[in-house]
Specification:
The protein is mostly helical and 93 residues long. Helices cover 58% and strands 0% of the residues. The longest helix is centred in the middle third of the chain and has 21 residues.
Length: 93
């Protein structure tokens, strides 16, 4: 048997999805970066983006294949772009 120098997909393990959402929910009480720096508007945006991302991604799991891509796109958009903006160390307006 030849051993590969890199892991294959079969070698990877994934965390339980509910554990991931729980860890993300915990960041709402103490947001990272600028969202947790005392700026109420950034904190509110961070929390709303995570809430919307969770709702959209969970909804994507419940709908048919025609609607799923749209919900996944907007869910990932909320989770990445909006949340990363709030986590960045640069000041943006």
């Amino acid at each position: 048997m030849v051993r590969r120098p890199y892991p294959s997909r079969n070698d990877l393990t994934y965390p339980d999805l509910e554990d991931v959402w729980q860890a993300l929910r915990e960041t709402r009480s103490d947001p990272p970066g600028w969202a947790g720096s005392g700026n109420a508007a950034r904190r509110k945006t961070y929390n709303a983006a995570l809430e919307q991302a969770e709702q959209l991604l969970k909804a994507a799991a419940q709908v048919g294949p025609a609607s799923r891509p749209l919900l996944l796109f907007y869910g990932l958009s909320q989770a990445s772009a909006r949340s990363q903006l709030q986590r960045s160390s640069r000041t943006t307006s």
